[in-house]
Amino acid sequence: MLQDRRKNLLVALALIAPFAAIYALAFAYPTIQMFRISFTSAPLIGAGDWVGIENYTRLGKDPLFSRAVWNTLYFVALTVVPGTLIALMIALGVSRLAGRLQALVLALFFLPYILPVSVVYLIWDWTLNFQFGIAMHVLDWLGIPRIPVTKSRTWFMPAVAWVTIWWTAGFSILLFLAGMRAIPAEIYEAAALDNASRWTTFSRITWPLLRPVTALVLTIQLILQLKIFDQVYLFSIGGRPNENMVLVYYIFNKAFQQNQGGRAAAVAVTLFVIIVVVSVLQFQLLRLAGRRRQ
Amino acid sequence: MRESSVQRWNLWSGLITAVTIICAVIWAFPLYWAVVSSIKPEDEVVRPYIELWPETLTFQHYIHALTATQIGTWYLNSIVVAVGVTVVCVFTSMLCGYALSQLRFPGRTTLWWIILASFMVPTQALIINHFELIANLGLVNTWIGTMLPQFIHPVIIIVYKQFFDQVPRDFREAALMDNASEFAILFKVYLPMNWGVTTALSIVCFIWTWNAFLWPFLSVTRTEMMTVTVGITQVNDAFGVYYARELAAAVLAGLPVALAYLLFQRRVTEAITLSAGIKG
Question: What CA–CA distance (Å, rounded) separates B145 from B133?
Fold first, then answer.
């Protein structure tokens, strides 16, 4: 019996070891290092002196950091709720279709999500091109003067937010569709027997039963958009990166462009804490959603 | 009275269906527009009006991208990195998921919580220390360096554990009676019963890695070591201000993942829903 348990432990160790080794090297160690160097004056690579919480207190005085915070929050406001609403409306439309038509329409909405961000960037950089972009032809038709979108202070964030919604909506649509499929058909049949109107059916059945999924989509979106970097970086090429500064961009800028690893790590820790807090919230929602469906 | 309300109902249904389809076409239009622009000659691309189909169809931009730029090298880098990450990540996650699901050992609950907690860690916050790590190991500008931080996707372990949990205990007990080892049980019983989820997870892991931008962008400074998703945005002189050339490169970069999705549509959507913690 004792031998059995020892054998079991050895087998378990052998199975876990490959993952544990990679995890320790590429995940646990960098995480600890991130916290550690955030209290030092380390450059990107190499050691630095212990400076206590100076890296954190200096952030408060850095106008570029506050701009990064505001821009990130602005971007979150422009994407999370609008993106979720757009995805919900699309999912409601798609869920009414059936068979091949549904698969085709879903594929059209979903395809952007599967593409790399750089491809999405090139497609929209071309679509929004000031001289030749098709979006500018549309503006011409509407009689609106053309806008150099990616060079404009006012329109940069809304445009990047729109591209992001276009890119990521497919994922939210999938989650909404899964949520809708989980609603038993009998409930709708009963509603139809009672001659319930379309709006009543939505507001009394679909929407309340979708609330857990909606909460899940909102938190996933929130976590995703707080980590915004790629699109802002790409659309800022040849533009004004400092105007469009967001949190991850600030980390990149401090660490990789100014060689200030310690100060960048302080921002990384801040971002880390914010996201872990939001994720704990999401985890609770998930458990709630799981319980509801059973 | 009844009849007219039914008719109105149908009219509404038809209208909503039509609106949905029109929206889907508009939604996907930029994709179509990029592809069509990439098969037009450069002078047609910059015409001041919209032509939905090229007057002269040409593949010269693709030929240019494939012969005059480094896109072939970037493709090779992307394939090596994406396949490497997928194989290592799915395999190690499967082993770990099996141990968590089927074996009882001290520290099991702790390990499970560590994995659930790692799910929440934003890898964007770790870029500084990931770079420090690969620099210290001398792995900047190498395939391994680009792969290393991407080997860990806690969600794959979580999904595997859920699926292994669902395999009826009888299979395991019968195999144990026959004196089968744990490895034999995993590879001859549990894995074959879960080929579906293994394929699905492998496809999305491949897509995630192929599409990764931030880390491959940081871990490589030499153009010949770039992955294709980074290369097409970083090497401007490769395409100049030739819009059609740039779009041809974009189409080439997106093609493998778009094909993977179109070929395995059901598996991909299944795995993506699973990765959000919802069983579709």
Answer: 9
Cα distance between residue A245 and residue A247, in whole Å: 7
**Hey, what's the torsion of the CAs at B246, B249, B250, B254, to 10 degrees?**
180
List the one residue out of B79, B63, B68 whose CA is nearest residue B147: B79
Burial class, A6, CB count within 10 angstroms (exposed 0-12 / middle 13-18 / buried 19+): exposed
Closest residue, chain A, to B266 (C-alpha): A103
The residue assigned the tokens 């492998």 is B202
pLDDT in tens, B220-278: 999 999 999 999 988 765 555 788 888 999 999 999 999 999 999 888 988 888 887 64
Residues A170, B258: Cα–Cα separation, whole Å: 14
Query: What is d(CA A217, CA A64) in angstroms, rounded to the nearest whole number?
Result: 31
Q: Which alpha helices (DSSP H) does B148-194 contain, by range? A: 154-165, 169-177, 182-185, 191-193
Rounded Cα gap, residues B31 and B274, in angstroms: 27
DSSP state of A253: I
Length of chain B equals 280
Q: What is the DSSP string of A76-130?
A: HHHHHHHHHHHHHHHHHHHHT--HHHHHHHHHHHHHHHHS-HHHHHHHHHHHT-T
Indicate yes or no: CB of A216 within 8 angstroms of CB of B50.
Answer: no
The pLDDT value recorded for residue B250 is: 94
DSSP state of B167: S
The contacts of residue A159 (CB under 8 Å, 6+ apart) are A124, A128, A149, A150, A235
Please give the Cα distance from A202 to B6 (Å, whole number). 19
| φ, ψ (nearest 5 deg) of residue A148 | -75, 80
Q: Is B15 exposed, middle or buried (0-12, 13-18, 19+ CB in 10 A)?
A: exposed
Asked if B28's CB is within 8 angstroms of A22's CB, the reply is: no
Q: What angle do CA B235, B241, B245 make, to 5 degrees?
A: 75
| A68, containing H or E segment | helix A63-95
Name chain A contacts of B104, Cβ cutoff 8 Å: 8
Question: Cα–chain-centroid distance for residue B86?
Answer: 10
**Residue B95 and residue A19: Cβ atoms within 8 Å?**
yes
Q: What angle do CA A79, A85, A86 make, to 5 degrees?
A: 80
Q: For A111-166, what is each residue's pLDDT tens digit?
A: 999 999 999 999 999 999 888 888 888 888 898 888 888 888 899 999 999 999 99
Alpha-helical runs (H) found in B70-107: 71-102
Checking if the pLDDT of A187 tops 90, the result is: no
Which H or E run includes A210?
A: helix A207-226
Do the Cβ atoms of A179 and A210 come closer than 8 Å?
yes
Q: Which band of pLDDT confidence, cut at 50, 70 and 90, is reported for residue B43?
A: confident
Is A119 in the B-facing interface, judged by CB distances under 8 Å?
yes
Ordered by where they begin, the domains of chain A are 38-293 (1.10.3720.10)
Chain A residues with beta carbon closer than 8 angstroms to that of B122: 223, 226-227, 271-272, 275
Buried b (16+ CB within 10 A) or exposed e, B177-193: eeeeebeebbeebbeee
